[in-house]
Design goal:
about 280 residues, 2 domains, elongated, mainly alpha, about 0% strand, 9 helices, ABC transporter transmembrane region fold
Length: about 280
């Protein structure tokens, strides 16, 4: 029974994520271009490392031909005129150009999808607020409602698109790198496969912490907006009764709580990233 809350939380998060993905359907064309860009970017990652190997060989043997080492191209006479030290820099520039194009297409068009989602969700949320009963507004403070439209929507869509970026771009990169490693040294590849469960546990643990901290940040941001909204709307009352110091204290408390919760998320991310890199490098 102890595992049921985690399973329920995972199922709820998955259902919410699937609902959010339905909003992507109107932007499927832009999303497809973004995926294509990430595919180009991921394919260049192992290329660069592999090409640098030939550059090192060229330093040891400057007269060596680059294409003479490629089975299907070694019989073409004019290609054999390209020496390693001539061909490798050109190929590095070409790969860097492909990487830049892929990164631009992936990030730019995914950002367009993200901004479109923010707009659509804000409109849907605002339209739903207009038809809610009065008792709903009586039981919820205005700051939290405003925060949901302005801050929470951006956070949710940002998290969704960032997750897509990580899964697609990094996932494709891992696949290409895995194939390259398997081709170059299958024993090293098996060692990398052995640590995948450890990496999976670390990623799962970090994602749960990020999700919990994100919820706390959203609530804290709502408190900041609520205090600021009340003070601005009731500024006549505040000045009439000399409540400036009291309102300063309220806002200081709300803002400090929000800052502290955001720092906790930054701390978690700062610890998680090098820890994951340490596990990967240890396997290598």
């Amino acid at each position: 029974m102890s595992g049921s809350p985690d399973k329920a939380e995972t199922a709820s998060s998955l259902s919410i994520y699937l609902r959010l993905l339905r909003y992507v359907l109107p932007y499927w064309g832009l999303f497809a271009v973004s995926l294509f860009g990430f595919l180009i970017f991921a394919s260049t990652q192992p290329m660069l490392g592999y090409i640098l190997k030939f550059f090192v060989d060229g330093l040891n043997n400057p007269d060596a031909s680059f294409f003479a080492q490629v089975p299907h191209l070694r019989d073409i006479a004019w290609l054999n005129e390209f020496k390693l030290l001539q061909a490798v820099p050109l190929l590095i520039v070409l790969i860097a150009l492909m990487q830049g194009i892929g990164s631009f297409l992936g990030n730019y068009f995914l950002a367009r999808v993200s901004l479109g989602l923010v707009h659509d969700l804000r409109m849907a949320l605002f339209n739903s607020l207009l038809v809610l009963p009065n008792r709903y507004f009586d039981s919820h403070n205005s700051g939290h409602l405003i925060s949901r439209i302005t801050y929470n929507v951006t956070m949710v869509t940002g998290a969704a698109t960032d997750a897509i970026k990580v899964v697609v771009r990094e996932g494709m990169t891992v696949i290409f790198l895995f194939a390259t490693l398997l081709w170059m040294n299958w024993k090293l590849t098996l060692v990398m496969v052995a640590i995948l469960p450890v990496i999976g546990v670390m990623v799962s643990s970090a994602s749960k912490k990020f999700r919990k901290q994100s919820k706390k940040i959203q609530v804290a941001m709502g408190d900041v907006t609520h205090v600021a909204s009340e003070t601005i709307q009731g500024y006549r009352v505040v000045r009439s009764f000399g409540g400036e110091r009291y309102e300063q204290g309220r806002f200081l408390t709300a803002s400090s709580e929000n800052t502290a919760k955001q720092l906790r998320m930054v701390k978690t991310n700062a610890i998680y990233t090098p820890s994951l890199q340490l596990v990967i490098y240890s396997a290598m």
